[in-house]
Design a protein that fits this description.
- By secondary structure, the protein is α/β, with parallel strands linked by helices.
- It has two domains: about 170 residues, Rossmann fold (3-Layer(aba) Sandwich); about 120 residues, Calcium-transporting ATPase, cytoplasmic domain N (3-Layer(aba) Sandwich), CATH 3.40.1110.10.
- The chain is built from twelve helices and 13 strands.
- The chain has a seven-stranded mixed sheet with strand order 1-13-12-11-2-9-10, with helices on both faces.
- About 50% of the residues are buried.
- The structure holds adenosine-5'-diphosphate and magnesium ion (MG).
- GO terms for molecular function: ATP binding; ATP hydrolysis activity; copper ion binding; P-type divalent copper transporter activity.
- It comes from Kitasatospora atroaurantiaca.
- Belongs to the cation transport ATPase (P-type) (TC 3.A.3) family. Type IB subfamily.
Length: about 290
């Protein structure tokens, strides 16, 4: 391999919005046969909005939203931003103070607001929920939306449904990757219903849902152990470990610093269409060198 050709390809990549950490990344890119894709913020825009808020019997929805919005104000996650924006809009821009804030990647957030313990996050066991909340959850998931539960002092007080849309280029990019012999796999921390709805829209047949950040990394390790040369594409703090364990970690330019720091390659334009361009560039460059 001539260093000059690699350098030229690296420069060409930069022009196309594909930043590689070093020229050796092109070789990894050429060899991959499996592309694992995060859902929220990667295949979808990550620009979420509150679509629905359903309170448990005896709870006032505006009040629950106000407390949830206050805690989520501290979160960087697209779900958190959507909830805070909706709370501000509906309850006035002054959100109360939060103490003891903690965020768990891929799970949710918690904190104390006005003396109440507020938790917002992934519903673990829907069967414990009031009927209205269970219905809201099921309906949201059948449409590929994400539903989170707000707990006040340990009791489920509301289901908040947030929705974002599949990126306009995702469908074509997935089809092209497959056309190039790469198998797409969807990997998400979101629940199975929402995951399969998005996978179905994109024609992705392999889906792993409800994966914690550690589980994401484990799945990558399993694929590699099975002989797959695996790229992982993600945007979130929750993807960083998986990005680091893949043969090639790929971050979206729109993603978090943690994701970009853990990746060998960054798609500056923040969409997976430029991944298709990148693979083509790597294959062409290294084919001429050999
Ligand atoms: P993805 O893998 O699709 O990018 P994440 O791992 O970031 O999704 O999130 C997984 C799940 O964790 C979300 O669907 C949600 O239920 C919960 N979650 C994560 N962050 C938050 C937050 N700030 N507020 C509420 N729920 C959250
Ligand atoms: Mg994500």
């Amino acid at each position: 391999a001539t260093p000059t050709a690699l350098l030229a390809a690296t420069g060409r990549g930069a022009e196309l919005g594909v930043l590689v950490r070093g020229p050796e990344v092109l070789e990894s890119l050429r060899r991959i046969d499996t592309v694992v894709l995060d859902k929220t913020g990667t295949l979808t825009t990550g620009r979420m909005e509150l679509a629905e808020a359903v309170a448990a019997p005896g709870e006032a929805v505006e009040e629950v939203l106000r407390l949830a919005g206050a805690v989520e104000h501290r979160s960087e996650h697209p779900i958190g931003r959507a909830i805070t924006a909706a709370a501000r809009q509906r309850c006035g821009s002054e959100l109360p103070e939060v103490s003891g804030f903690a965020a768990t990647a891929g799970v949710g957030v918690l904190g104390t607001v006005e003396g109440r313990q507020v938790r917002v996050g992934r519903p673990d066991d829907a069967s414990d929920l009031a009927q209205d909340l269970r219905d809201a959850l099921a309906h949201a998931e059948s449409e590929g939306r994400t539903a989170v539960v707000v707990e006040l002092d340990g009791r489920a007080a509301a289901v908040l449904v947030v929705g974002d849309t599949v990126r306009p280029g995702s469908w074509r990019a997935v089809r092209r990757l497959r056309g190039m012999g790469l198998e797409p796999v969807l990997l998400t921390g979101d629940r199975p219903g929402a995951a399969s709805a998005v996978a179905a829209q994109l024609g992705i047949r392999k889906v792993h849902a409800a994966a914690s950040p550690e589980r994401k990394a484990e799945l990558i390790a399993e694929l590699r152990a099975a002989g797959r040369t695996t790229a992982m594409v993600g945007d979130g703090v929750n993807d960083a470990v998986a990005l680091a364990s893949a043969d090639l970690g790929i971050a979206l330019g729109s993603g978090t610093d943690a994701a970009i720091g853990a990746a060998g390659l960054t798609l500056v334009r923040g969409d997976i269409e430029s991944l298709v361009v990148a693979v083509r560039l790597a294959r062409r460059t290294l084919a001429t060198i050999r």
